[in-house]
Amino acid sequence: MEFQEVVRRRRMVRRYTADPVDPAAVDRMLRHAVRAPSAGFSQGWGFLVLDRPADVARFWDATTPPARAARPDPWLRGMRTAPVVIVPTSSKDAYLARYAEPDKGWTDRDEAHWPVPYWHVDAGMAALLILQTAVDEGLGACFFGVPPDGLAPLRAAFGIPADHAPVGAITVGHPARSPSRGSAATRRRRPAAEVVHRGQW
């Protein structure tokens, strides 16, 4: 698929068919994800891949509050149909350690050097490459946040190390014919003319 078409077609898919996802397609998503830029080539990301039904079910059990699990809303019912979940994580420690190396000029690991948490930014760029690759593979995907009270159970359920922070999760699958639609269905996309400022704001 042409790159412009990938960008144009990319959207968040919230409901999937029961068709399985080719493991080779998932591998291509991950190979592309690790091509994302990272500050200092720190590459402080990690990706938890859940592609077995039992593991996907454990993800939802860990991240869904009991009250919501008992009465799932349309969003949750649709998202739970995804056969694959990928959890991108970021390691702040990897960045602090990398920039304390001699070639970077800092002699400490002080977070004050970082006005923006690039460990999360870089993991987000890797996540976008997963979303774009899904489109190129003829699949759908959705990036979403893990609720704060679901983070500790998620870590415990899958052994995510303390130095890696989940930055969200991505469902992947074959889009259903009538996918549920999010905010894009009721809000217009802002044109470039409204958000691009040339020379001065």
Would you write up a description of this structure?
The chain has one domain (3-194): NADH Oxidase, CATH 3.40.109. It is built from nine helices and five strands. The chain has helices at residues 3-9, 23-33, 53-63, 66-70, 74-79, 92-98, 118-136, 148-158, 192-195; strands spanning 45-50, 84-90, 140-144, 165-166, 169-173. Strands 1, 2, 3, 4 and 5 form a five-stranded antiparallel beta sheet that branches. It is globular, with a radius of gyration of 18 Å.
Summarize the structure.
This is Nitroreductase family protein. The protein is built from nine helices and five strands; from the N terminus they run ααβαααβααβαββα.
Outline the fold blueprint.
Layout: H1 3-9, H2 23-33, E1 45-50, H3 53-63, H4 66-70, H5 74-79, E2 84-90, H6 92-98, H7 118-136, E3 140-144, H8 148-158, E4 165-166, E5 169-173, H9 192-195
Antiparallel strand pairs: 1-2, 2-4, 2-5, 3-5
- Helical residue percent? 40-55%
Number of domains: 1
Please provide the ordered H/E string of secondary-structure elements: HHEHHHEHHEHEEH
Task: Indicate the structural class.
Answer: alpha+beta
Radius of gyration: 18 Å
Quantity of strands, as a count: 5
- CATH homology group: NADH Oxidase
- Give the termini distance in whole angstroms: 36 Å
Q: What would the average pLDDT be, to the nearest integer? A: 94
Question: In CATH terms, what is the fold-level topology?
Answer: NADH Oxidase
Approximate shape: globular
Uncertain runs: none
Q: Major β-sheet, in short?
A: 5 strands, antiparallel
> What share of residues are in beta strands?
5-15%
